[in-house]
Description:
Elements lengths: L1 E7 L4 H4 L13 H14 L6 E5 L2 H12 L9 E4 L15 H9 L7 H7 L2 H11 L8 H16 L6 E6 L1 H11 L15 E6 L4 E8 L3
Parallel strand pairs: 1-4, 2-3, 2-4
Antiparallel strand pairs: 1-5, 5-6
Helix pairs in contact: 2-3
Amino acid sequence: MKKVYIIRHGRTYINHYNKMQGWCDTPLTNEGIDGAKKVAQVLKDIPFDLALSSDTKRASDTCELIMKENINHNQLQHLTSKFFREQFYGYFEGMDSDMAWRMIAGPVGLRNLQDLLDNYSIDEIKDLMKRSDPYHDAENAQEYWSRLEQGLDLIRQLDGYENILLVTHGFTIRSLVAKYGKGKFDIKTGPRNSSITMMELTDTDTKITSYNQLTL
């Protein structure tokens, strides 16, 4: 069994400005750097065998800050991959979040993201986003999972790696929890920046065991 410590990246400028941030990228704020350093202290005694992150700068920088404090920092390798990126928001990238979610929710008679979460699954929301995108560039559920599952398969194939650090993104963590959390966790509240979500992986099973924690 592999234990995967899933961390949401530290707070960024686009988070601060309440804008949509999928594949677009901005640096960590000072608050984001401090948050990454705090979770690094929580995780410093976990003997990580490998560090993974999406290939965005915000995730990679958060990962490096965590690795720096780890008991295994001298031998830890950091691999980045597009497989672990956030959902691609297409036309809505960089848009004010409230405005974007109104555009996505409006065609089905709703007002905002919370309304959508009350009435639709995470994957259905992905499909609604693509449908509302004037260019239809946003990832739908099938496109998103085709990419992300390649990342999970990559982890499964890592022989001899038991404790894995994975730094990724808010909607991606919600998606994993929705799919593999067996309904035990409230995904209407998104994961906080620098929070910890735990996943266990075997060859035949994927299980979320905790969500959106600031301590172990």
